[in-house]
TrEMBL record:
PANTHER family: C-1-TETRAHYDROFOLATE SYNTHASE, CYTOPLASMIC, C-1-TETRAHYDROFOLATE SYNTHASE, CYTOPLASMIC-RELATED. Catalyzes the oxidation of 5,10-methylenetetrahydrofolate to 5,10-methenyltetrahydrofolate and then the hydrolysis of 5,10-methenyltetrahydrofolate to 10-formyltetrahydrofolate. This is Bifunctional protein FolD. The keyword Protease does not apply. Residues 137-279 form the Tetrahydrofolate dehydrogenase/cyclohydrolase NAD(P)-binding domain. Residues 4-118 form the Tetrahydrofolate dehydrogenase/cyclohydrolase catalytic domain.
Length: 283
């Protein structure tokens, strides 16, 4: 069994992004990410701080808009319009979840698709599902990068994605399908999930429940990608997989922490660089 080292691969991606960002700087271009945070959610504040730090570490520009919880939907839409029109901004990311009085779909649809580095705009969702080039959500994109770096063949494999969120499950399934896998998407209504999983050579679990994927569900030699991030009462961070019992059955597995998690920010930086190149080099 081999452990997939997401920390190492994410560092490689970041080094590559940094080298390209430095080369662009010499041409007078600074790829710049604008992050919008509304409200005081502690986890969101941590994510945004980490995104800002990583962006700056990669020699890119970082602009943060931290708005009060009382911000109205119209005020947020007005800010997005300003950022859409600002040529110095290459990527716009609205940190989710938004306060309940704001319609997230309306906000995500207002972002210029060419600056939608999170890949949540319906135009980018459509492009992914049509196999066209666009922006792909960072977590599943990072998983594809892990599969590629570890030479895991996807084409012709049976893959099961557990979870059907717009952020992880659905785009993950589309990417695996585009790469030639036979894909099953499982969710809370799926019957006999163990049987569905036993047929898979690749399992991606994105449910948000500790110890959800157990050893009896996993075929010998399967590749298991654990997307879950769960904080236990004792403060320990775990994934969705019963790691100690599942890992011995796998050919490869991602740990939590240190697997999928670090890839998400790395791919956000990569998408921001891609946007700057698309917008400023290709005219
Ligand atoms: P989500 O929107 O809550 O989706 C969870 C999915 O799991 C849903 O599709 C749900 O099915 C399914 N599910 C729930 N119970 C199930 C069951 N008993 N059997 C089968 N499926 C079940 O969560 P998410 O945003 O996709 O995130 C999933 C996990 O990944 C969370 O732990 C999150 O923190 C983590 N995450 C990690 C990263 C990272 O960077 N590593 C990024 C994003 C998310 P229904 O649709 O039928 O309800």
């Amino acid at each position: 069994m081999q452990i997939i080292d997401g920390k190492e691969i994410s560092n490689r991606v970041k080094e590559r992004v940094k080298a390209e960002a430095i080369a662009l700087k010499d041409m007078g271009i600074t790829p710049t990410l604008a992050v919008i945070l509304v409200g005081e959610d502690k986890a969101s504040q941590t994510y945004v701080a980490s995104k800002e730090k990583s962006t700056i570490a990669c020699e890119m520009g970082s602009v943060a808009h931290k708005l009060p919880e009382s911000t109205t939907q119209d005020e947020l839409l007005a800010l997005i319009e300003l950022l859409n029109a600002d040529d110095s901004i290459d990527g716009i990311l609205v940190q989710l979840p938004l306060p309940k009085h704001i319609d997230s779909n309306k906000i995500l649809e207002a972002i210029d698709p060419s600056k939608d580095v999170d890949g949540f705009h319906p135009i980018n969702v459509g492009k992914l599902n049509s196999g066209l080039d666009g922006f792909v959500p960072c977590t599943p994109l990072g998983i594809m990068e892990l599969l590629k770096e570890y030479n895991i063949e996807v084409s012709g494999k049976n893959a099961v994605v557990i979870g059907r969120s717009n952020i992880v499950g659905k785009p993950m399934a589309a990417l695996l399908l585009n790469a030639g896998a036979t894909v099953t998407i499982a969710h809370s209504k799926t019957k006999d999930l163990a049987k569905v999983c036993q047929n898979a050579q690749i399992i991606v679990v994105a449910v948000g429940k500790p110890n959800f994927l157990t050893a009896d569900m996993v075929n010998d030699g399967a590749v298991v990608i654990d997307v879950g991030i769960n904080r236990l009462d004792n403060g320990k961070l775990v994934g969705d997989c019963d790691y100690d019992n599942v890992a011995p059955k796998c050919s490869m597995i991602t740990p939590v922490p240190g697997g999928v998690g670090p890839m998400t920010i790395a791919m956000l930086l990569s998408n921001t660089l891609k946007s700057a190149k698309n917008r400023k080099l290709k005219g």
